[in-house]
Amino acid sequence: MLENIKTVLTEECKLVSDRLIVVGVSGGPDSFCLMEVLREAGYPLLVAYFDHQLRPESVADARIVEKTAARFGLPSKIDGADVRAHAEKNKLSIEDAARILRYRFLFDLARRYKAQAVAVGHTADDQVETVLMHFIRGSGISGLKGMSYRSVIQSFDTDIPIVRPLLDIWREETLQYCAVHGLRPRYDSSNEAVNFQRNRIRHLLIPTLETYNPNFRETVLRMSHSLKGDYAFVIESLEDAWGKTVTSSNEGIITFDANQMASLPLGLQRNLIKHAMETLHPGVDIGYKTLQRAAEFICSTNTAPRLDLKSGLRMFREADVIHVCAPHAEFPFDRWPQTPHSTPLTLELGRQISLAGAWKVSCERWRHPDLAMEQAEGNEDPYQVWLDAADLPKTFAIRSRQPGDHFSPLGMDGHSQKLSDFFVNEKLPQRARDRWPLLCAGDEIIWVPGFRPAHRHRLKQTTKDVLYFALHRPAEKDEENPHS
User: Rounded to whole angstroms, how far apart are CA atoms 250 and 239?
Assistant: First the structure.
């Protein structure tokens, strides 16, 4: 066993020989086997026992673990908590509460002692049970592949991995190993209690399935190995799609290009949304129905602009982007120009003034109408415009919309429409409309920055004098696309 384990430790778990490992030891055969395997392989260890306080004999188990560690010259740390009380307080199952408190203890130790990893004694039997649990829940490939030799659980630590060196070793083998090496594992009576789902799978479901296939456990284990390879391919495709579709990302909001998302295969859409949800809310339980609703939301433009996902996570559609948002995320406004307040600002010829979010707007006179016409025809920046200066004053107002506003946009031959209708037609996001800056000459809106100028102030062949207006993005946003 040791020779095979050494390969797993270095190649799969990626452990180095000179850095500490926190090893979780419960006193059972699996964890004692893991402790001794790591010790014989020469790794510095810190033995950690967490008392769930669910069994009267747990205190005695703690003493056995402490004494065994001392016999091998290993340091140990013992702690515990009332798991049942934690489960009731936080509305968790006993299994989930026990896992959370134990892992929190192990990773706290790993951070305190600068360990390279937390090691736990999950075996091939645990892998089979885990795969079946995920199957019963309706998991996709990420659940059916089972546990990995090495993984990072973001909800406990973003850097320190958890390693499971015994994933290919059956529980019977750990019992034999302990007997050969003089280790006396403790018997955990809670492992027989069928009120826990994992125990029901272990003692009731698997024996039943083995009547159909005596090699059922080996078959499931092989399947998990096969799906790991498939999952690696999915992750590679996911990373490529993530790079192409995500336009911005922070701790509260992940934004996708809606058109790019809609063009992807359904499976990739679901995986992108799942990855976004797990990034914003590590540990969230995501089912098929949630991802299916998200996929339908992506591909339909006739649905409401908001979709509630799970655990407070939400999706929003704005123009050509889709946001996946954490429960308390606040949308940033500096990706668009916005007026800083409801009071109009005065913009004079040759001057520059500031808007909200470090945006600025400037105005200058151009004396060469032919050059202006050439620039305007080739212009792709919606935040700059050249206007015929005839009939325009030297002082302008920058204001937000007002009730009853009308606008005569370029291309409508002077016909006007409600500004609110113009915003809807141009798919300006709802939350950006109230403070969107409007360039006005008196009561007339002569330019809606980001969109179109007023028709009557367009450049014409007869234009002799030109005014140039520009909105300048914040410097740190130059590489982004605030107009999306």
Answer: 17
**Which H helix or E strand runs over 307?**
strand 306-308
340 phi and psi angles, rounded to 5 deg: -75, -20
Evaluate whether residue 336 is within a structural domain: no
224 assigned to some structural domain: no
Does residue 302 surpass a pLDDT of 80? no
- Is residue 408 a contact partner of residue 416, using CB atoms and an 8 Å limit? yes
Instruction: Say yes or no: 186 and 270 in one domain.
Output: no
Residue 105: alpha-carbon gap to chain centroid: 25
Closest CA to 454 of 385, 391, 407, 417: 407
**Sign of the four-CA dihedral 386, 387, 390, 395:** negative
Query: Which domain does 184 fall in, by range?
Result: 2-212
Contact of 177 with 165, CB cutoff 8 Å: no
Asked if 274 and 141 sit in the same domain, the reply is no
pLDDT tens readout for residues 323-346? 999 888 776 666 789 998 889 999
Spatial CB neighbours of 444, under 8 Å, sequence gap ≥ 6:
454
- Answer yes or no: pTM beyond 0.70: no
Q: How many CB atoms lie within 10 A of CB 83?
A: 23
Does 332 fall in a domain? no
Whether residues 365 and 453 share a domain: the answer is yes
Tokens of 50: 């967490």
- Domain end point (choices 325, 358, 390): 325
Nearest to 133 by CA among 124, 143, 118, 123: 143
- Encode pLDDT of 83-121 as tens digits: 999 989 988 888 888 999 999 999 999 999 999 999 999
Which CATH number do you get for residue 456?
3.50.40.10
What are all long-range contacts of 154-160, with beta carbons under 8 Å and residues at least 24 apart? 154/278, 154/279, 154/282, 154/283, 155/282, 155/283, 156/103, 156/104, 156/107, 157/107, 157/110, 157/111, 160/107, 160/110, 160/111, 160/115, 160/116, 160/117, 160/118
Same domain flag for 270 and 411: no
Q: Kindly state whether residues 303 and 417 are assigned to the same domain.
A: no
Instruction: Check whether residue 121 and residue 264 sit in a common domain.
Output: no
DSSP-assigned states of every residue in 173-211: HHHHHHHHTT--PPP-GGGG-TTSHHHHIIIIIHHHHHT
**Is there a single domain that holds both residue 317 and residue 351?**
no
Same domain, residue pair 12 and 96:
yes
